[in-house]
Amino acid sequence: MSKSPYQTMSSSEPAPLSTDLMLPIPIHERFLVINPQTSSPFFSGLIPPEIRDAIFDYALTEYTRTDAESIYPVDTAYTRPGYTGKRSISISFLLTCRRIYKETYHLPATHKEHVFWHGRSPTVLVGDENERYYFRRFTEWQMKSIKEIHLFTQLFWLENSFPRLCAQECLQGMERMTITIRRGDWWWNESNTPLGIIPQRRHSDNAQMMKDWKDEKEGKQIPWDSKAWGSAFARLGSLKELVMELETSDDKKDELMAIVEKAKTWRFPYKNGTVLSAEGLREEVSTWQGPMCNWSGHCPYCGLRGKCKVVSPPNKGCEERTRLKAENKGPICYVVRLRWRVVKGGQ
User: What are the b/e assignments for 65-84, b being 16+ CB within 10 Å?
Assistant: First the structure.
C-alpha cells in the first residue's frame, strides 16, 4: 500500500539527500517583505530611475585601494596604467535596505574586472590555478552574471597553457575575453630579441613568423594547428568578442606595428562555421612611461650590455636611454588594442 503524503518516514529508512536542503536560497530569490522606501528620494519619484541606476552603478564600481599595503611597487612588470594596486568594491552599500539589495545584488560580480596574471604577476598561483581557485568561490547565480575575463599572459604561457584553460568549465559563460601581452611578455625580451607571434602554431619566433608571412604573400596557407593557442577559442562556448593588447617599447614600435597589420587579417577558427574576425574594427593606440624593469639587458641602439658605447657623433638613442635610466625611468611603451568579433566564416 502506498504511503500517505502526510505519513512520517520510518526511522530505519535513511532520509534522501537533497541539494536544495543543503544550499541556502539566495536572498534575491526568497519571498521577503520589502519596504518600498517611498520616503527615500531614490524611490519617491524625486530622482529619475535612470539617475538612480547611475548612482547605484557608481557606488558599486571597483576602485583601486590607496593604503600602503595595497599599492603595487612602481618598478614591477605588473604595475601599469589602471593597475597600480589591489582593488575593491564597497559591498556595504548592499546592506542599506532590502529594496536596494534587490536592485543591485548582481552588480559586484558584473562590475568587477576578473583579471588574471600568468607570469610576472602580483599573485602566487601558477598555471590555470588562478581561474579555477578564483571562480570556485562564486555561487551559480553569480557565475551566470560574469561575462568577461582579462588575462595578462607571457607568450610561453599563451602557447603552452592557454588551450587547456579554455576547456575549463568556469570559462564557458564568458562572452568577452581580453588578452594583454606586455613589453616583458615576448619571447627572450631580456636579450632584445625581435618580436614574433604566430596564432596558427604551437610556438612562435621571429624567424618562423617572417617565413610564414613570406609564404602567405606567395599564396600559401598556414594551417591552424588544433593545439595552437589561436585554435583554443573554439573551446569557449559563449565567446562573442576577443580583445588583444600588444605592447612593446618605442625602439620596437616598427616591429609591433608590422605585427598589428598582420593581426588584422587573423581569422581565428571558432565553431559552427564561424570565425573571429577583426574586419571593420579599428585599433586603438596608447603610450605610457614604462618602469625601469622594461629595459632589456642589451641596449637596442648599440647592442651592448650595461653602459652604452661612446661614439662620435653621439648615438641619440643611446643618449636618451642613458638619460632616462639616470632619472630612474623606463622606456616609452606603445600599446595597440585590437578587437575580433564572431562572424560567419564567409564574411
Answer: eeeeeeeeeeeebbbbeebb
SS3 label, residue 340: strand
DSSP 280-306: T---EEEEEE--GGGS-SB-TTT--BS
Amino acid identity of residue 63, one-letter, is: Y
Report CA Rg, the chain.
26
What is the arithmetic mean of pLDDT over 8-27?
Answer: 50
CA-CA distance, 204 to 215, in Å (whole number)? 16
CA dist 268 → 90, 240, 321 (Å): 39, 12, 38
Q: Is the pTM of this model over 0.85?
A: yes
The Cα 233–Cα 241 span in angstroms is: 10
Per-residue pLDDT tens over the stretch 158-195: 999 999 999 999 999 999 999 999 999 999 988 889 99
Average pLDDT over residues 146-157: 95
Taking the CA atoms of residue 305, residue 311, residue 313 and residue 316 in that order, the dihedral angle to the nearest 10 degrees is 10
Do residues 293 and 75 make contact, with C-beta atoms less than 8 angstroms apart? yes
- Per the CB < 8 A criterion, the answer to whether 232 and 317 are in contact is no
The C-alpha cell that represents 71 in the structure block: 599599492
According to DSSP, the β-strands at 87-88 and 267-269 are: unpaired
Nearest-5° angle of CA 299, CA 251, CA 317? 60
